[in-house]
Amino acid sequence: MLEFTGSLHLSAGEWGLLILSAALTGMSKTGLQGATLIIAPALAIVFGGKESAGLLLPMLVIADVFAVYYYRRHAEWKYLFRLAPFTMAGVFLGIYVGDAISDDQFKSLMGVIILASLALMIWREWKKSDDKIPDAWWFSAAAGLAGGFSTMIGNAAGPVMAVYLLSMRLPKNVYIGTGAWFFLLLNVFKVPFHILVWETISFQSFSINLLMAPVILAGAILGVGIIKKIPEKPYRIFIIVMTAAAALRLVF
Fold this sequence. Notes:
By secondary structure, the protein is mainly α. Helix content is 79%, strand content 0%. α1 (12-28) packs across α9 (203-229) and α2 (35-47) runs antiparallel to α5 (103-126).
């Protein structure tokens, strides 16, 4: 269980990290892609591996609800149905592995997964748009398994799903809408396992998440404005460097 589930009296530093994480979570849903990758390792350093995953999950669900509301009319459900069985298998694999290892091992594994996701994000950024990405059934299976496992251990399935959805050559709004529905359904699917199996979500921890809901909304609104003023490349370089540093801190 979270060490602070018996009380809401967090330190100023812990509150600051939570507020920053909530704001970045909201921003990540309105164009500042990659922001959530930095949150998971930062929270893990302070609160522990599995505990931080349970703390972050409800914030992701809240942000996903905002994203789905905005893009609710844009989704290609056949791709979600194609991914579903493999993603669920990946989640169950993540549950088993996460339950069988210590918290230090969990944090190390989280760090490795986040670094791998980061490498995938960098690869996607630099890959030529005319290069072909496979869209066969086995690619859907691999993406689903990798996405399910990485989201259960490190809440780091974003780059995996980005590569998969981009390979489907979806229009911009359909790409965003399909991804929004995918992550909402996936994160809601994970909640019972965090409550009943890992016991990383409690009434007290969820109370903290509810307190962060306005910050998440503010982050989503702020993200819309920021993305118009901050050059994308410098921002993404900053996210990549900071995420790599935090993930390496988990591993070593």
